[in-house]
Predict the structure of tRNA modification GTPase MnmE.
Amino acid sequence: MSHLDQDKEVNDNAVPATGKMTMAIMEIFMQERDGHPPVIFALASGLSRAAIAVMRLSGRGTGRIVESLCGRLPAPRRASLRGLWRRDGGTPVLLDRALVLWFPGPDSYTGEDSAELHLHAGQAVINAVADALVALGARPAEPGEFSRRAFMHGRMDLMQAEGIADLIEAETEAQRQQALSQVDGAQSRLYQHWADRLRTLLAHQEALIDFPDEELPPEVEQELCNGLRELHDTMQAYLAEGAGAERLRRGLVFAIVGEPNVGKSSLLNALAGRDAAIVSSRAGTTRDAIEVRMVMGNVPVTLVDTAGLRETEDEIEAEGVRRSLFHVKQADCVVQVFAGNPAPPSLDGADVLVCNKTDLTPAPDGAIGISVLTNTGMDVLRTVLADKARALTAGRAVAPFTRARHRAAIEETVRHIGQALAMPWPEMRGEEMRLAMRALGRLTGAVDVEALLDTVFGQFCIGK
């Protein structure tokens, strides 16, 4: 039997759609009211022009919606070519012939019943299928909602969810590797290891507080303090060694600064490989910052061409100078450009000193000599900047943190552990340890009181 005949057979046996659609919408409404999230859908393949568009569905009721579209569910995790039909009264309308995949929960990305419709990517096809899904009671997904549901169903933790977002946004190979490591749970395993150690220490502390008359070994409190100090030092070292990964995720900013008419805009254009900034022999041409995104040393870098630094009575140029100084303070690397010999005084925060126009005057000692006009020294400068980018994003930490949220949570954990070590009273020490446990739990989204109780009752014979 051909696919066309199969579709015709399904249509002949179809239930009239009007009443069925109303019942489906009412069912979704009742599920949402009773705490069951509705079926959501979204394009997993994005909006760019392509041959195939992947429409993803998830939620309780996905199976019923897919059956309404194509007649019956395909075998789980096997692609099946089906006709997608809209049945809203009268003669059914063929929307598309698509590959349909069915992923029954909990073995799916979200942990819910899910499906994928691999459509032809014409906008009319996408719109028609989306309208049909809405008519059957589904709704468009909110940003990040599929991953949010996966987190809520225990399919991933917060660290892995953030890793997926970073993997989608990765521009370079280094970013891809870093994000993939996070998706695979490298950070989660490290933080869980710390949480397990802290939970065990807190269990010991709770036992010392609540059961002082028990025959507990006298060295328990000393081992507790030693363990806290070791964990504190480990996390402190991790913070010091892991900052480069955060820079790699967000990318670096290199500010090109210097006096007017030394070739800053020409240098930006040469590094970018295109005419991004206006070049003129007239001083003060650049009034506002011009940004160009590129890759250096396998690291995404935003080059910022700034206004020339000089005293001026021109109100607009003066504002440009003020913004230039702001970029100097905010940049990860400041490239100070000058022309002539000797070099001008180095700006506060300048990292790389570049002498342009060496076709006219040789560069002084300590500066990288280039001529944008003749392309002299540009390869050397590119190498220096690439090395700088790699150095700024390097780190010795295993599974380093990648976001300000991670750093803040770890710093808070370290602070509470340090305060716990300084507390002379066991009760106050225990409270600081609980606060540290809570801060650490926020990294992965798991703050488990029951796990603490299991540790307490599993290690000590309490209540016998």
